[in-house]
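agent: user wants the structure for LysR substrate-binding domain-containing protein from Paraburkholderia kirstenboschensis. delegating to structure tool.
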Amino acid sequence: MSRKLPPLIAVRAFEAAGRHVSFTKAATELSVTHGAVSRQVAQLERWLGTPLFRRSASQLLLTEAGRDYLAVATAVLDRLAVASRGLVDQAAPTALTINAPPTFTMRWLIARISAFQRKRPDVEIRLTTSIAPVNFQEHRYDIAIRGAHEPIQGCVSFPFMTEVIVPLCHCDLLEGGRLRGPEDLAGHTLIHYVTEPYSWEQWLAQAGIPDVKPVGELKFEHMYLALQAAAEGLGLVLAPLSLAIDDIIAGRLCAPLGPCAAQFRKYFACASHMSPVIESSYEWLSREGHDTEQSMAAWAASVGWPLGVP
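agent: tool returned. relaying tokens verbatim.
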């Protein structure tokens, strides 16, 4: 049976005009002129044989027939958009670009990509690194990962892991009782980096020893350089426990002075549309984040730390 359908372009113009009750706003939404919307609506009215709007010099109103037709047109176009989006997602190249801070990418994310690939072997992961504010309009990535104290504005964002800041060093620095408590930092070098979320000045104040002077200081641009310096035994660095927990458990680093009071969270962020691939990536990051939190909590409990992660 053949279908007698109205012109789809005319229906789309009417639906936008009906939602806004304005030809001007509909024209802006559809990126056409006011006159184009008016002509399309008039064409649809002729096709239907009934007016859909009451027009006057100062007002545009839907007729009763127009209100009924708008409800149907909106529902049909919404269903068509959803179905089309699903097909586009299936047909589109299955590449997923993730943008994350460099040290987090090197020390946490890369080691966990294989878990995602086992679940979604059809998806190609592409990694880029940045600490700049998230901007999906200017940058070509599908997902951004950032540390923050609250949800990231201007996009969809969800926390997937709690970050706890701790002083870290090579285990050799503990030999001979040289680092029993915070006051012993006077005999060590403190390592800094530009993007540190919590400074040694803050940590010393929290520990009640703001006047302690270290024997030296090292400053780096990136966290991964500062962590490498600590791993080489050059001093102590303040860094997220999540990025060091594997090394601590393996005995390559130690955290002799307990956690800081400061905490923040790692957020997953994407633009307004969450495709099936992006949803899969969030599930993966949430699972890996939870596993890391469990590892941190188990280790902290073994040394008597009140870590305070979920």
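agent: one observation worth passing along. The CA atoms of residues 101 and 130 lie 5 Å apart.
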